[in-house]
Structures
1.
Amino acid sequence: MIVPREAMLIKQASFVNITCFLFNFPNYKFELLWFNLNLIMRKLSFFILLILFSTFDLINCANSAKRVRPPVTSIKIISKNSNYTIGEPLSVEIKTKIKDGTFRKTELFLDGKSLIFSEKPEFSYQFDTKNLQVGTHYLKSLATTNDGIIGENFNEFLLKSDLNPQKFSYKIVKTYPHNTDHFTEGLEIKNGYLYEGTGQEGSSAIYKTDLSSWKTMKEFKLNDQYFGEGITILNNKLYQLTYKTQIGFVRDLNTFDLIKSWYFKNEQGWGLTNDGECLIMSDGTQFLTFIDSQNFNEIRKIEVCDQYGVVKNINELEYINGLIWANIWTTDKVVEIDPKTGKIIAEIDLGGLLSSVMVNPKNSVDVLNGIAYDHATNKIYVTGKLWPKLFEIEIVK
Ligand SMILES: [Ca+2]
């Protein structure tokens, strides 16, 4: 029995032989010609397929061009500057273009809240900024067609503080020794004891020092994987942040036994304090986050600003008489922040503190970091990372 492929080959061979016989053409030349024809046909079929696919794509593009496009809306902030001082009125222009359908309205939002809407595709709007917080604010224009097709656009602006911070200096009242191995990240006083949290992986710890005898009463070393950061004491518990592990620890103030730990969303943990209810943390940015001390939910954030704009690198914190005091990392500056608004009220220049004492040139000291306020005596203590001294200071106004 002859299988179909064999039958085809016989048929092809017969066709070649008969054609050669009829036209007196050498067999091998005809086979060469036949081979080349086959090759050309194969290449042609490739190009035909390519053309077919391209045509299909073109048809597709033509179809997608017919799809309904969302309105194109824009928000332009009218000003000669990019930053504004809080209280300045701010004007915006909104323009919307519709390619398909019929325009219905464009609505303007400020920080997610609706400000105004207009049934005209172009309109301008002016609003007051005096009741806003300092820091960054977000505008959104949301344009709608009658078919319900939505287009949106965003813009942002910064509100600087309208305060010119008071400038304070300091006076050293007393000098105490400070362990030059302590990479100070948190400092707080409670019931006559100074609590210090230190950093660096492998040497992070908490120390409790008697303020009258200056003896270390208790210390607790953190697991090597943790880089200890800010500490604060609330309701007989000691709260401590870690640097990049996004974990905070709650310990019994007397035993340092772990009560619980919590996860925080901030990418980094820096300074920590409390206002008697909430934990307040810094994270190296210009933001301070207020956290519920029971369930660790984020309550609110403030953005720290002075008259020039946002102030970043907010580090160790201390809550003193209704204001948040903060070290600005890598500087000798401590700022006093209004916890409601984020505005800097005053700046304390602590420059020259270390030059007042003998520093062993073999000791590599790091930056100023660590503010502790004794609510019982109204005394203020400051130190720095790896500093040989801790200072009780008085603010000179
Ligand atoms: Ca502190």
2.
Amino acid sequence: MINDKEYLELVKKLNKRSEEYYTLDKPTISDSEFDRLYKKLEEYENAFPLFISEDSPTQKVGSKILEKFEKAEHLSQMYSLDNVFDISELAEWIQKNGETDLYSDSKFDGVSLNLIYKNGELIQGITRGDGKIGEDVTQNAKVIKKIPLKIDYLENIEIRGEVVILKDDFKKLNEISEKQYSNPRNTSAGALRQLNPEITKKRNLTFIPYGIGENSLEFKAHSEIMNFLFSLGFIKTEFALTNKIDEVEKFYNHILETRSENQIELDGVVIKIDFLEKQAELGFGVKSPKWAIAFKFPAVEKKSKLLNIIWQVGRTGAVTPVAEIEPTEVGGVIVKRVTLHNFDEIERLGISIGSDITVVRRGDVIPKIISASKGGDKIRPPENCPVCQTPLLKDKTIINCQNLSCKAIAINSIEYFLKSMDIKGIGNRVVETLFENGILTNIEDVFSMSKHKILGLDGFQDKKTDNILDAIHKSIGNRELWRFITALGIYRIGEVNAKLIAKIFGTDFINKNLDDFLSLDGFGDEMANSIINFISANKEKIQRLLEIIKPIIDEVKDSSSPLFGKRVVITGTLNLPRKEFVKIIEGNGGFFTSAISKKTDILLVGVNGGSKLKKAESLGITILTEDEFLKNFLN
Ligand SMILES: [Zn+2]
């Protein structure tokens, strides 16, 4: 144990180190050394609590340095937004929803953060993550400007917003740092995920609210919710409330014109249906609410020249044209190749080799050619597959290689499988060589390759071969089921949908019918049919792979549970925390949703049910009290 003199020196030393950490990005004490000293300091303070110095790093708000962030679950899902890029697309969206009030505000270019308040106190801050589970950054949230630690509202509530760095703060940061930061958004993201909250604090982040998640408020409109948030002490932002499209456009133009004077980086305007009842009616897609849309600012445009068109064969056999262009910088990225999606795009643009072209890039979206000079030789679609030379099938805009053993299709499918299964260290060249030598020709081969066959190949030494086989074997019994479902490469079934399928059906998904898939949240006819067709064509193969891979399966849901597949909404004040009920619902294969609609099966109602209760009554939805719910569903 250190003595009191050594203790005070240690306090000084650790404070100096924190200072170095954020101003220089080059501390003189390593992280591990810091942790060791910090422990010593704590030991002393635990033994002599009366002698704790006010300056001690343990006495500063949230100054504990973490080893890593814990995962944390959002009480209700966080969604992203669909985009439109021009006024006609927006008009279409507005018309689709019928005449209704629209709430428009700026789209802040930052990182999403979910704040959970209980009994008026900030108890958790969670990054968006995959929308359901993020990282617990509570101690960093506590040092971000404009996040109140206490609010004047006692019910549980999730408050959501963007963490940004104001332009002035960004400028200052670059003045005091040796390292130059170039992108405010990335800087905010990096600062939010610092294990040492002292650093987060010095980066001067700011929180801008945009809405709420789980709550028991009884407001009727989004605008009322926002005014409520402003009244709690969150930053007040400019918004427009109107039912006229030209007023929305006026607001958009106003925000666009004043964009450079705004202290917050903006990348568009968000338009939301104001009435919550209408929002509930529209509901959610897989990734985004149907009642909100982002109207993005115009993209950065650059001139270049088309050098060549190459034809690529994807894992589905689709042959797509890719433009090779004179390298040009667009929005901070050097662009050399731009996909043209399909042959129609070439005709529509009237593009030919040597054309002068305009390339745009919007935010993080991939670059796109929007116009080209006319004239020159017409580009024709290929007659044969550029890889296997089989005559191509041409159907409207789709050009397809139908050859099931086409090298490009096989290789791309294998690569996609390895990537989705998170099997690392087997690059494109390796897959290609193994394919050409008949060792790895389809997904099943991945798990049956033998060392002696590979070892003879050019460039495959002992160690490299071991590494490849090792990476594959380590994945066995060690990958989640959703990864496997994604890896199958079923049309329209990406990661989000695969997670849902794995969670609800487990490995039994191969025995499900069309109605079962249609009952999943966000699944329409096209998706359900796609997976049904795939399973019926490949059932035995999937079964064999499942036996080999032995994926990690969440506790399989009992489909005989009365809650299975049911949509449950909770309202009012309950005796048990809401999270407990969500656990019961999801544990039984049901869905917890936040808004009442015709699709809702059960309303669980506590004290003061309010508008949700009335709505459920009018829709004839089953209404259960807390006691009834627990009696029925708590096994
Ligand atoms: Zn082919």
